[in-house]
């Protein structure tokens, strides 16, 4: 029997992304878009459909929110383990993943000023 032991850096980012919004309306719209995509994509049973093309449901969400910047391959990021908290006019995303372009695009689409860093390097911030 062989025991494989390895360290995978792709799941050790301890990444923090903070989007500071000009007003609560923009923040709520960004959060609503993230929540809608996350819920819809977690209902999908075929991951290939998620990463190779837009489903009718994801296309409807994008149309409803007037948001067309995501590539189909980026939709998979909503299936990753992440959390989003709100602090005043800021949304704070935390994840161990390095692929966060979907969230960045949504934050920027809603006019957020964005800060990204590793909590390994800046603990307690």
Strand content: 15-25%
Mean pLDDT over the residues: 88
Compute the number of helices: 4
CATH architecture: 2-Layer Sandwich
| CA(first)-CA(last) distance | 44 Å
Number of domains: 1
Taking the sheet with the most strands, its summary is:
4 strands, antiparallel
CATH structural class: Alpha Beta
Spans of at least 5 consecutive residues whose pLDDT stays below 50 are none
How much helicity do the residues have? 25-40%
Shape field: globular
Going by helix content, strand content and strand pairing, the class is alpha+beta
Number of strands: 4
CATH topology: Alpha-Beta Plaits
| SSE order, one letter for each helix or strand | EHHHEEHE
The gyration radius over C-alpha positions equals 16 Å
Q: Largest sheet, order of strands side by side?
A: 2-3-1-4
What does this structure look like?
With 125 residues, this protein is of the alpha+beta class. It has one domain: Alpha-Beta Plaits, CATH 3.30.70. Helices cover 34% and strands 19% of the residues. The chain is built from four helices and four strands, in the order βαααββαβ. It has helices at residues 24-42, 47-52, 56-64, 101-109, and strands at 15-20, 82-87, 90-95, 113-118. Strands 2-3-1-4 form a four-stranded antiparallel sheet, with helices on one face. A hairpin with a 2-residue loop joins strand 2 and strand 3. Helix 1 packs antiparallel against helix 3 (56-64) and helix 1 (24-42) runs antiparallel to helix 4. The longest helix has 19 residues, at 24-42. It is globular, with a radius of gyration of 16 Å. The mean pLDDT is 88.
């Amino acid at each position: 029997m062989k025991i494989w032991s390895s360290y995978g850096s792709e799941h050790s980012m301890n990444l923090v992304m903070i989007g500071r919004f000009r007003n609560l309306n923009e923040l709520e719209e960004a959060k609503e878009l993230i929540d809608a995509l996350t819920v819809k994509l977690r209902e999908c049973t075929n991951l290939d459909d998620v990463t190779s093309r837009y489903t009718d449901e994801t296309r409807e969400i994008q149309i409803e929110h007037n948001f067309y910047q995501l590539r189909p391959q980026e939709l998979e990021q909503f299936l990753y383990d992440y959390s989003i908290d709100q602090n005043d006019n800021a949304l704070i995303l935390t994840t161990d993943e390095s692929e966060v372009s979907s969230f960045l695009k949504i934050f920027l689409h809603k006019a957020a000023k964005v800060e990204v860093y590793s909590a390994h390097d800046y603990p307690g911030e």
